[in-house]
Give the backbone structure.
Amino acid sequence: MKRILTIKAEEGMVVAGDVYNEGNHLVISRGTVLTKEIIDRLKYYSVFDFFIEDDKPIKLNSYNMDDLERHIFSEYKIESGGYYNKIKDSEEFEVFEGLFQESVKNIQDCFNDVVTKNKEIRVEQLLDSVKKITDDFKPDVSLFDMIHCIEEYDDLTYIHSVNVALICRIIGMWMGYSEADCDVLTICGLMHDIGKVMIPNEVITKPGRLSPTEYALVQTHTIHGYNLMKDLDLDERIKYAALQHHERCDGKGYPNKHRYENIDSFARIVAIADVYDAMTSNRIYRKGICPFEVISAFEDNIESYDPKVLFMFLERIAQSYVNADVVLNGDLEGKIVMINKYALGRPGVLVGGAYVDLSRQDNMEITALK
């Protein structure tokens, strides 16, 4: 069994297990043979990765993939847990988790008050709960690692909102934004998914496959979010972050298929934080993906995101793992010693005393932090 990113899927591959989206809805079943239409469906439902059988793809009459999509990932090793278990066992994480839970409770209460009681958003209270975290902990990738260690709660929306807010705030600090702009960007992250509370619960919690109509309904959360906040006394960037965080700079997003120049700059940042958290965080149906897999996925889709923000973000993440011990496919172990600026997801690694440039080794990749 092999794990691949959806962007690397090719026709004829056989799915090794049921595939769910981040809402835990079945998208395709085990044993499905991939066709172009099914691959498009996986992308449509924002499925980032899934397992396939080890056998070679079944030859299909419609097989006509380009060289990039013919590349098949080698066996993906699920996070062994050693790296993250050390974090979970630390006193620092215990403090972090307490502050995180407080922030999740605040955002949950805020969403409910805005939707059911038509109350104003308590911006200062929300900000304080997030800033306690970034003030008490170094605002770098070590904070992202602690986010990765948070266990599942009953409602993923609120956890995800806090995660995105933390990532947005760190990006703003890395970009050299003013304190005021970092505050606005933090609220953008916290409120970007408020529209999801307007989607019928039976659709959000449906155990089976979402129909195209149901998925289209889920997509309306961006419009609902904007409408909930449009008349509130809030910075306009917060409202547009809710509306535009699923827009893509190449015009392939929703709801309006806007391109770079028509997407608010803070919404472009939220889009990156949103996807990074979705891919690296643990879900009920899968473990979070290794950061270097995620970096490679972003690099394969550069045209979808704000390049200035994305390159800075990915480089800071990659550089932070220099000297980290890692696991490569084939159960090899190594140490990252050099970052390749032109292939951030494929650094230079020492393996058994030998230097290996992963950017020149198509059959080798980092699958886990050790």
Summary: Residues 321-369 form one domain. The radius of gyration is 20 Å. Strands lie at 2-5, 19-20, 26-28, 49-52, 325-328, 332-338, 348-351, 354-357, 366-369. The longest strand covers residues 332-338.
